[in-house]
Specification:
Blueprint: E1 3-10, E2 25-28, E3 34-38, E4 41-45, E5 51-56, E6 63-66, E7 72-76, E8 79-83, E9 89-94, E10 102-108, E11 111-116, E12 121-126, E13 131-135, E14 153-155, E15 161-165, E16 170-174, E17 180-184, E18 203-206, E19 210-214, E20 219-223, E21 229-235, E22 247-249, E23 255-259, E24 264-270, E25 290-293, E26 296-299
Amino acid sequence: MEYRQTNVIGGKGSAPGEFAASLRCLAVDARGQLLAAGDSEIKMFDASGRIKRRWSTSRPVLSVAVAADGAVYAGELRQIEIFDGSGKLVNTWRDETLLQRVTAIGFVHDGVLAGDSAGRAIRHFDRNGRFRNNIGKDNPVNGFLVPNGVVDFAVDAHGVIHAANPGKHRVERYLPTGELLGHIGRFHGTDPAGFGGCCNPTNVAVRDRIYVTEKAGPRAKVYDFSGNLEAVIESADFDPNCKNMSVAVDARGVVYVADTVKLAILVFEPSNLGGTGPVGPVSLVGQAGLVQVGQVSLVHVGLVGQAVSPVKPAEGLPR
């Protein structure tokens, strides 16, 4: 697998397309639009990184997801707010016990899933907000091991849940009913195919492959569904102190990663999309190689190149 860095979206600031104090979560909708949860707002960007729309949430937003019907779900402290595609609030689910800190949201065919980091579990609700069951708590430690304070997961095309369990250095697979199907990953301090440190991976996305992010140092990795490492994406643009880096992937295979310190979204395209993009010249490395050229270094990946300037946000956007 080969990737190139092609864009940097957002950044710290007060402009409509920037983030004042936090960038928590990313999601991609069926039209390829990128949604970002930060501060007390949801921001929507087009595929080129131009902001299209933004709207406020009633509490600081910790997670965002888009349902098949276009509804936007925002996870917060003790509640989930549900908006239509234009940002109009249509419903709010509140629960002081089951939704203490909603750091991830996902969907199965007839239900809604919410990662509650305070309860160290994924909560399964029906589409009307009625609780069904917990996922990830039926183990000796009574939940996911999340020292970083985030429960993150993604749902694949078959309805299987892939949940990061950083304290166990793996990504676990569950049915919506809560049964553990298996896992990928293992602890290793030097082999990039493994997960090092106290607690990695922190975040996960699923599309045609499994995509994860790690902290210390910050990077993204790509695995097949059998757990074989296909790519490691490292960029000098990432702040070395960032963690809980949300990752999202669109239908083209473009990878979006949130830098939680610089409050910027780094964009990486697979090389099979063609073209050189705005990063300029690239160099190739082999399976065992590690190279740094310009601002991006990649292991088990073929493309590296110069970072690009952030997309400038437009003024006068709808809220």
